[in-house]
Write a structure and sequence with these properties.
Largest sheet: 4 strands, antiparallel
Structural class: alpha+beta
Number of helices: 4
Number of strands: 4
CATH topology of the domain at 3-96: Alpha-Beta Plaits
Oligomer: single chain
Length: about 150
Amino acid sequence: MPLYEHVYLARQDLSPQQVEELTAKLTGVITEGGGKVTKSEYWGLKSLSYRMNKNRKAHMTLLNVEAPAAALTEVERQERINEDVMRYLTIRVDELEEGPSAMMRKSDRDDRGDRGDRGFGGDRGFGGGRGGDRDRGERRPRRDEETTGGEE
């Protein structure tokens, strides 16, 4: 059976419990269509890059699905009808990702360290590392200096 990753965005004014109920309803549609949901992740209420339908945030949920295409078509039809679903995206994959998804992993965020050490001083020099008073060597002549020999 084909494998899919399906993500949908629900309106910000829903409660997390209502989003879980919506996920259960979509999972039921997939099960009735002869498929199964292998993983369901609720990513939480996240800020959007731009406003969608007058919403600045959305509840995001990922479903890893093993189902025939007809079952996913029915899920997408149900999402188009439901006014609580703002956007959805289904991608067919060769294999489903095991363990937590990239959105749930925190190792990338932990490796960056504290950003509070970027003050004036530090090892980057005064002015935030833009060069400051660093010696750049001799400057090249400008075009108008090249043609006139540098003197007017």
